[in-house]
Design a protein that fits this description.
The chain has 6 helices and 5 strands, in the order H-E-E-H-E-E-H-H-H-H-E. By secondary structure, the chain is an alpha/beta fold. Helix 2 crosses helix 5. The two termini are 28 Å apart.
């Protein structure tokens, strides 16, 4: 099976200059665990729920929801996103039979069909 058969082509992305409160809202509302991060339409990183958890000290500091949003609004994505991002082209063969998000998202971004 080729990567193009597994990948999503309509991918929601965030800009590297966006703040974590926006990313948190989008990821929670869309039930998204990983999001491509772009700058000028080019893939520059991946933001995962784990990245958000590491940045949000709310559980340690016992923030209320409003205080947590205020804290997250001060942090931009480029400070916490995972990079570098390794991509694979859509015509490559997949080694796995199950869907791999990192492969499908990276391939979708590389295929120039990234939308925001």
């Amino acid at each position: 099976m080729r990567v193009k058969d597994l990948m999503q082509t309509d991918v929601v992305t965030l800009d590297a200059a966006d703040s974590l409160d926006l990313a948190n809202d989008v990821m929670q509302l869309g039930r998204i665990r990983h999001m491509p991060v772009v700058t000028k339409g080019r893939l520059v990183g991946i933001l995962s729920q784990r990245d958000l958890f590491r940045a949000a000290c709310s559980s340690v500091l016992h923030f209320r929801p409003a205080a947590e949003r205020e804290w997250l609004a001060k942090i931009s994505l480029h400070e916490v996103m995972t990079r570098p991002v390794f991509t694979v082209g859509p015509r490559r063969w997949s080694r796995r039979r199950s869907r791999s998000w990192s492969t499908s998202a990276s391939a979708a971004c590389r295929s120039s069909r990234v939308t925001r």
